[in-house]
Structures
1.
Amino acid sequence: MSSNSTQGRPEAIRAVPVRHPGRWVAAGVIAILAIMAVHAVITNTRFHWAEQAKYAFDASVIAGVKTTLMLTFFSMLIGVVLGIILAIMRLSSNPLVSGAAWLYIWIFRGTPVLVQLLVWASLGALFPTLGLGIPFGHLFFSARTFDLIPGLAAALLGLGLNEAAYMSEIVRAGILSVDEGQSEAATALGMTKMLTLRRIVLPQAMRVIVPPTGNETISMLKTTSLVAYVPYYELLFKVQNIYTRTYQVMPMLIMASLWYLAMTSILMTGQYYIERHFARGSLRTLPPTPVQRFRTRFLGISG
Amino acid sequence: MTQPMVKAENVYKSFGRLEVLKGINIEVAPRKVFCIIGPSGSGKSTFLRCINHLEKIDAGRLAVNGELVGYHERGGLLHEMRERDVAAQRRKIGMVFQSFNLFPHMTVLGNVMEAPINVRGEAKAIVLERATKLLERVGLEDKMNNYPSQLSGGQQQRVAIARALAMEPELMLFDEPTSALDPELVGEVLDVMRKLAEDGMTMIVVTHEMNFAREVGDALVFMDGGVVVESGNPRDVLSNPQHERTKTFLSKVL
């Protein structure tokens, strides 16, 4: 019968594209709304943009930003490390071990984080002194609770221990998402359980663990603002200090929000690249980075 | 007579109430290819998994190279082995799975080198040399830096064989190694296994490839309902089965 070689390649199809009138209408509506919003924000003097700019990089605000980032980092560190341990404990075949992890998650996930923060900050009311010793016996060491748990420690304990409960469920979901054949193959090669977990299961679980962990980190960045009530001086605490002095509540709150937005944006970018890293092997070709996409789209350079 | 590589005496195994193995007696001689055939649910894969203690047996004795699998025998009592000791036994037994089970987050080379480096603690350079040779042997030297998802099923299974061989096992277990493959890819995996048999590897192969069993197998058992129904030379059993169950099974698959 007729083959391609005798007929040759037919002419490429040049059809009239489908019209999308709805898109034009939507674009028009959005443009008008955007102009209205910009107009409202610029002409309303009560935003006090100049005031905001004046305090945005004030030394105390910068110190608050740094503290917020520091609290986020260390709380998440505690949360992730403890979360992995709790997840492994929950999957243990020893009922005492998995039960202990369950109890921990039950308590720390079941009570508000603000309450937990306040409890850590005022633990001295419950246990005026903390010490290490044999129950009902000799005490090796003891100190006043308030000296042992200053504001920073209370903040980190409150945020980190609460986060661990959530992280453990995320890690557990990740571990369960890895096919059983993987640990079987590893076991057949003579790997111990711990080595299998470290080399085979956890690296694959990361694909499932990273996106919700990014979510948790962003959530944590904002939850640190609760620490203002411990009290510990993070960004919101500093901003509150300013507006109680200047009475410019709304401008200062907006300024703080802009700071939180900026920090979240940076975290989101980081998350994108971490996800890309752990996608190795599970995708045939990695998705392009934003920079690569920009180059192919606007400069016509691929690769 | 030389010591058998695998010796199973009256092996029983249940999953809950379901009895899967009901008294298996098998001896596998070293440097021989031992084939197990039978319908699904006959217990053949379970028996294979008992040999490297992926499943614990409930009764009987199972020994590899004269050593009980998973237990120490002291003073007439069986003591369960610690995890580390079981793992040490498994290092000498390679296993190839129906679904390949390659590690998807590692390259082909990474898959082959993983266990020798992290389990046996060998030097990277030595392992790299051995891994390269093994990948040449299975014809995949040009895929070393690819990830498993970039390979065909047949290629993945050949990598899985190389990965098991990298631990220099004295026994290889194959659990339906070609059942998940497209028909046109079955041949390349069987070729690798045939070469391995020629090199003198002791192999236990659970398979539906009757031609492979006939040509390469030194011994064959037909299992059904958790027992060995018939055993003998593959050519005899396959062309002249004695039992009715074997005849019905073979008439359906041949």
Note: Chain A is about 70% helix and 5% strand.
2.
Amino acid sequence: MPAMPSSDNLPTTPVNRRDFLALATRGVLALNGLLGVGMLLRFLSHPPAPSSANEVDLGPASNFPIGSQTVMAQANLVLLHTEAGFQALSLECPHLGCLLNPEPGGFSCPCHGSRFDSSGALLRGPASKNLKPLSIEQNHEGHLIVRY
Amino acid sequence: MQRTRLVASILLLAAMAISIWRVETAPQPVPLAPTLTRQTEYCLTCHSELAEISPSHPIETFGCVICHGGERLALDADLAHSSLRGGRNPSDFSVVQESCGGEDCHSGSAAQARDHIPRVLRSIQATYAGAIANMRYTFGAQEDLSARMGIFAIQDPNPTSSSVPGLSAFDPSQETHPSLIAFSQNCLSCHLSSEPLPGKEYARLTGCAACHTPTAGTDLEQPLHRLTTAIPYTQCNTCHNRGNYELRSMHFQARSDQPTNRLDDYYQPIAQFVRCEWTLDCIDCHTRQEAMGDGHIYSSQKEAEYVRCYTCHGTLDELPLTRTISDPNDLALRLAFVNPQFDLQVGDTIIITDRGEPLWNTRRLPDGSYELLAKASGQRFTFRAVKGSACQQSAEQQESSYCHACHAVER
């Protein structure tokens, strides 16, 4: 078995300037590529800008007996259950969109003073419309689904 | 060639490293999707500590961008602020229509009393037309005192017999009299588009915020984020009652004192004042149309101001004009709503002016006297009508000087 040459005796191949530049360029480009892929992955995994949900599940219809009026603050709506059925009204003021406050007999706007009765009918401006009715339906599980 | 490639790839690497560093050090965005626009904006990432500007403009409803402009999704301050309207003040008249206008906001119909912007742009505090007309007449540049020019050109599509149909922009370069040139250089600091004179006593913003953002005596460099209709007299005094213009040299002669006592210090020493003139705030008597205009262009303050002592106190023969509120949409209720210190209700009887403007901060009491709420201080005052009193004033003597003869406070 031939003896291993010591490191001092390893044959050396001189790296010329051209080879060094080529090697360095490849290394830097490889690093660029890695960073680029990393940035692309980060970009693709970035959560999209939050958008408001366009439908909300209010739960089982049986939770809302006839005659009930339920303010769903999280969903910015009031759910009315009358003999005629379910009705959902937006609690955003039709004037400029401020969130209405429930008060005895109806709702009032804390921003500019518009008032509405408990059925959503306009009592006092500056709003000029009744509260906006929202689309509501019952799904196959008996839940009430409101769409904005 | 090889060296150029290496340098280029190193530069590319440096650019990517800087980009990554900027992304990593950027703040975590705080999103807000106001109900009025439903468009996400990230302004609260840096501005969450800012106080809400007014109860009528909650941030959940309005957000920031609809009034201020700016790049709503930018996290870099320079980029986010690059398209702000009016810099820090979106109510400056150069941008007020974009910032505060809109049919349901402040440039709606006159019938709905939502025409704040078109009215104020024609008001004498904005046009400065009276001062310009006076100076041009005094120095021979025009033949009478009728206004022809304003700080900016403005038209009134429906002028009255006592108003002017339009103004052209005052152009100092067209003036030849030295006094008018000096006037344009030294005396145009007291209108709603002008920057204030230096000093805390003059501290105010421009446009709507000149009045509705109280700044008197403060440092304008501080964050200012407030709008109110309860405007104290001190804010009016950032322009008014600060001194006089000396007509020979056309320079502003500022008063040398810093008055604190309203009765003894504030006003001109030779003038007389009754109690309500130095205890109330200016806006307790002067109406929105007097301060912000009635939609027409006038040649002088005298044509715009019309509330007199008799407006509230009546005359020997007549009680003050009143109106009992029966309509829940009455303008008085809307105005009172934004100053909740006064609980005005349907059924209340309020004083109205000659032109039908409601003094919504007044109410007739069951015993026939009247109550007035001071809008800024919240103080309540009661007063009686002249009719039935021992007053000997004649019906023709309704200028305040006649009232001062008996009722001025000694000082």
Note: The radius of gyration of chain B is 26 Å.
3.
Amino acid sequence: MTRVEAIDLVKRYGSFVAVDRVTLRAREGELVTILGPSGCGKSTTLRILAGLIPPDGGRIFFDEKDVTSLPPDKRNIGFVFQRVALFPHMNVYKNVAFGLEMRKMPKSMIKEKVKEALRLVHMEGYEDRMPSQLSGGQAQRVEIARVLATDPAVLLFDEPLSNIDAKLKDELKYEIRRIQRETRKTLIYVTHDQAEAFAISDRIYVMNNGRIEQEGTPLEIYMNPRTPFIAAFIGTTNFIETSIKDYDEKSGIATLEAAGLEIKVRHPSILDKRKRYFISIRPEDIKVINPNDQESYLNSFKGTIEDAIFIGTIVRLNININGLVLKVDTYGSERFNFLDSKGKEIVIGFNSCTILNM
Amino acid sequence: MSRRMHERLSSTLSYLYLILICTAILLPLSITLYRAVVVTRPDGSMTISFQSYTMISEAFWDKVLVNVSISLLTVAIDVAVAVPAAYALVKYEFKAKRLLFTYLNGVWYVPGISYGLALVLSYYFVYKFLLGFWGFVVAYSTGFMLLALLTAIVAFRNLDPVYEEAARCLGAGRLKTFFKVTLPLVGPGITAGVVLILVLSLNEFITALLLSGPTRVKTAPLQVFSDIRHAGIQPFVAAEATVLQLVSLAIVVLYLKFFGTKYLRGAIMI
């Protein structure tokens, strides 16, 4: 198991700064994800870690060893690419054996290691197949076996599931997690898919415009997004621009105002009354409630259903409250009651929301 | 017009087009063979005889051997020089890269006669030591270098860099990545250039004609031309021409059998 530490990484392309003083750490045996939208610099960061791109600044350490200027073949890494990178002129066995041959291992040991790696990804029996005879999912499994066979110090995965259909993607992401747990390798995983990141990561770095915006466990990032960008990028949310009306130090409850509504938020510290704040309310945190239960909620409002959208396990309602439209998610068999409820008046309630600096 | 009739008409036209192309290519070759093997008897009747092949002089066979040797050496030199050069041109950035590509493409459009004349002027009047057999080899190698270079450049440009990156991440150094991954994957592209150089150098006429004066070496196509001039289009001259066709075909078929098909399957060349 190896610890990875990247400090103040910088990569510029002319005047464009693709990676801007990125610092990240992955502990031994940890699965760390760099999550961000397309073009945010996450793949560039990973390629710098692999040695495929030289950084313009910063240092990279694998344990105590400074690997910043080492070429990829001297870093002992396993890199899985976004596009399938199996050598098309070699069969599955030769592909998996490639890295072992480069390490000049004896043939009998290579045979054993290839077998073991293919077993780990459930691809035994495919040794003689050419990459063109494999499906997308099978090819990606072989690619993972190829990097695992070499027993790398660090695994680097660059959106390995982005070209795979939804069902298989769902299956493979748990496979990756299982393999990482079994092998106890340090894995740095890059994706733009927050569901994928949340499902497999120990910790997540959220990247935007070449910078790390927040670092934390999936739960921390979801529950306490630090910036409006993260709140919007992670899941679906209701963003409301508000001003501070009052702060009750005794109860620690701030009263904010938006579209003529007073919204109460629990907040541990005094807020600056001269500033304006965003609040983020997750659609799943808002409930359609019985008008008699309003007392149980910190916030409750009457509104009209503008629209009800069926999204499989969820029916998402757009509720108009004094001109402010909030997204509200309904679940279970109750959700079907809202499908033909356009124009109906209901009461909604919620307790939790997050205040974000503008 | 019904859809079925439309399909039938387009299918017939496609076949006619193919037949026309095949006829245009095969007819002259067939006529040469006809001239070589069909003999008219004194009574006016015709018969097939391969006697014309026995009349081919030993000098011609020597020249075929010279030709084949020149072509094989040309291919070897061109591949050895052009492949690394093309790799470097594609992979590494330098200031005048665009200008160089424009120049290389521009050279391609220089007429053969102009190029041949330039070679004669260079090798005979400037570098007088490059005469004889090796003069031909150097002339052909430089003449066809561009073909090898451009086909290799296209092959390297079309290669997805992800394979080389994967090889590097799996522990292969630059050289091993080049020989184990890059070269086998660009094989089909390089093969295309090799086949073209083989065929064109075996049958090169204009440059050979201009070089034969100062170098005093004659290639097989020049021998055929010389025989036409002195003896006319006799059956043995036609026989020589068919021999050249067969040698060309045999070399290309052998090359593709031993290297080309392997390449196309993606096996390792060197």
Note: DSSP finds eight helices and 20 strands in chain A.
